[in-house]
Amino acid sequence: MKIFKYMKIYILLVTFILFINLLQIPVYSKDLNEKKILVIVSSENYIQLTDGNKLISWQNSMLSSISDVFIKNKENIHIDFQYLDCKHNSKEFLDEVYNLFKIKYANIKYDAIITIDDLNNVAFNFMMDYGENLFPNTPVVFSGISKFDSSLQKQHPQFTGIAKNTDIKSTLDAALKLHPQTKQIFVITDKDTYGIANRKIIEDLIPHYKNKVKFLFSEENNIYKLKTQIDNLPKDTIIYFSPGIKDNNNDNSISYKGASDILFKDAKVPIYSREGLKSNKYIVGGMVTYADTYGTEVGNLTLKVLNGKKPSDIDITRDNAHKYEFNYPQLKKFNIDTNSLPKNSVILNAPIKNNYLYKNIIIKISIMIIIFIIIMETFVIIISIYRRKLAEKSLSDNENLLRTFINSTPDIIYLKDFRNNFLEINDAALKILSINRKNCKNINSHKSNNLSDYTRNLLTKFNINDKRAWDTENIYRYEEIIPDTVNRANKIYDTLRVPLFDEDGNPKFMMLIGRDITEHKQNEKNEKLIKELKYYDELRSNFFSNISHELKTPLNLIFSALQFIELKNNKDKNTALEKYTGIMKQNCYRLLRIIDNLIDISKIDSGNFFTHFENKDIVYIVESIVMSVVDYVESKGIDIVFDTDVEEKIMAFDLDAMERIILNLLSNAIKFTPSGGNIEVNLHDRGESIVISIKDTGIGIPKDKQCSIFKKFIQVDKSLSRNREGSGIGLSLVSELVLLHRGTIEVESAPNKGSEFKITLPVGVLPEKENVKKHNELDKDYNIQRIKIEFSDIYDY
Questions:
Q1: Using CA atoms, how far apart are residues 758 and 689, in angstroms rounded to an integer?
Q2: Per DSSP, which regions of 557-703 are E strands?
Q3: What are 127-156's pLDDT values in tens digits?
Q4: Largest CA distance in the chain
Q5: Are residues 486 and 621 in the same domain?
Q6: Cα 11 vs. chain centroid, distance in angstroms?
């Protein structure tokens, strides 16, 4: 009952998978001549195969060869694949599969069915039992079955095929011939469908070897126990190995090669198999069926059926796709003479003898020389024929080549005779004249009634300049202005006229070549304009440099006077005087800030602003800048907080520029955040970049103004309130300084909800030799002065 329960679960699982397949909508070819073939493959790995995994190599190679046959014969054939689980082939299971296939293939008509088995006959038997109901009157080409009763063809006239040589008896016969002292054959199989089929074949062969050898069978699934059995075999034993071993310890299939390495590496008796030598270097040999050759035979047989031959008229044969294969190192190990091998045997891994090698080299070189001589002679003949044909067609080809050339160029080209008749004119010239070739013939016939005034005037102009060229009797170059009727503008053409004379000096031909140089002339004007712009840019730079000096000189005098007044006032303690000197100093700082910003923005625009990058801890620098303004910010009734998700981040940046960026953004946050508000400065590490965020709870920025705040001389708040003064340069300078660090700056803001400026900078570190340390740390006095300058447009009065 328990087994039946599991069988029901398995059938339901397979039914579900097949039902999913049935949901796929079939696509029908629009080609009415296309033929459709269904290939049914029996495999123990049905579930995996339907999930899209690759077929096992033997079946895959066979299917590939069948497809190649159709392709080489240029047949328009569509192939569908269907897989059958050969491990579960009970009547109940197959009935369920039949019912599902009946639904799936109800609306599909196939021209032929191909079944592929490997000694298990599951696909073949399925078609024998259900084929006529599923695919009425459809030919079936079977393959891979070991036995076929020819009398069945009378009952199933739609069946034909190529039975597969089991190769097992041939392998055993060859092994016994090469080892005449053999007393027993140790057969290794497993308990799956393939192993059971192999064992059944060998058991049927036992009567052929009665009183000659004894057969021992092993279905041991534990590979290490099987290894012990092999090690204990007597020397008069040979092993027949059928792959598919599993290790019961972990229930995992061990590959053919892996099992061979464990079992046979130290084997003292010879091993034979029909599975091929490429994946098992310990096998002596055996009869091997080549899947590609077998597939080709099946493909050719299918073509016969598709071409109209009745399956009942085709004799069922066995495949010719098998040969003996032997492994040379194993032959030497067991002292087997290669001359005793079956005729036409293939010996793998055999060393190449020197005399054989030299003989092959000489033969190959001789063949290559002969081929080279033939190729050279053929080449000489081809060249001779080519030259002959080229000579015969030279005039025609040259004419076509010339016409193609002159029509492909945008330059205007024409050739006239001395009577002003056009002998040749290219498409560009026709376009300029606004005529076609038919009109050109009319011009030569002096029939110009259908020509426009524009064309007549232009032809007259050309004729006048042609006459000048005739008169000079030399090359005549002239810049002609020709109206462009399409773009309604004048174009300038550099024309070159070449008068040609005969031997007596009489005029014969006039050739004109004209090139449009309008753009070139415009570029000359633009080049002059660029030079003027560079000159004025240089003047501007010099102006800002001079104005900086001229403005800072009186500022320094004012600072000195204020400092003197402050020293004198330290004794008198005049509150009013202290207040007004403070106002004066703050406005001096503000003027100094405006001057510095103007100069720096001018330097950046002209490409003369230089940064000094050095490796520093960005976390420490930003935190130090924020901490330096805490007292000032809190004096305004505003809370300021610095937070980071990383304690240290070494990267290359300009210390002065970074300080100006942070202080400028903090200045804006303080200006536009009322008392009781908050300012948050956060630094986030993103691995290859860092993000510095300065967020406030101020008045915010309208959405329509956010795109312009980084432009020069733009102020969002244009009110006259003194605590919000500004030049409109600060954020523009911040944006430029961020760009010099290859970074980006963006803003998120809403009115009355505050603003957040995010600076993203790439993390890079300078090599030690390039890391010229300019600052060890922030200079305290310098930093205080910088804060006063950057915060100079924040007023308390």
A1: 12
A2: 613-617, 639-644, 650-654, 678-685, 689-696
A3: 988 989 999 999 999 988 877 777 777 888
A4: 136
A5: no
A6: 43
**Helix 780-790 with 618-628: angle, nearest 10 deg:** 60
Contacts 24+ apart (CB under 8 A), 150-155: 150/316, 152/128, 153/311, 153/312, 153/316
Chain mean position to CA 143: 41
- The residue out of 163, 189, 210 marking a domain boundary is 163
Which tokens is 175 given?
């092994």
Taking each helix axis from N to C terminus, what angle separates 575-606 and 518-572, rounded to the nearest 10 degrees?
Answer: 160
CATH number where 463 lies? 3.30.450.20
Same domain, residue pair 188 and 116: no
Residue 279 and residue 356: Cα distance in Å, rounded? 28
121 and 76, same domain (yes or no): yes
314-366 pLDDT, tens digit per residue, is 888 888 888 899 999 989 999 999 889 999 888 888 886 655 666 778 888 98
Q: How many CB atoms lie within 10 A of CB 488?
A: 7
Give residue 640's domain range: 611-790
3-state secondary structure of 32: coil
**Confidence at residue 645, expressed as pLDDT on a 0 to 100 scale:** 94
Q: What does DSSP assign to residue 254?
A: P
CB of 153 within 8 A of CB of 316? yes
Residue pair 552/595 in contact (Cβ under 8 Å)? The answer is yes
CB 88 within 8 A of CB 10: yes
Confidence (pTM): 0.42
Strands, E, within 319-431: which ranges?
A: 322-327, 346-348, 412-417, 422-425
- The pairing of beta strand 507-516 with beta strand 412-417: antiparallel
Structure-block tokens of residue 599? 């100069």
Q: Helix or strand or coil: residue 572? A: helix
Do both 470 and 454 map to the same domain? yes
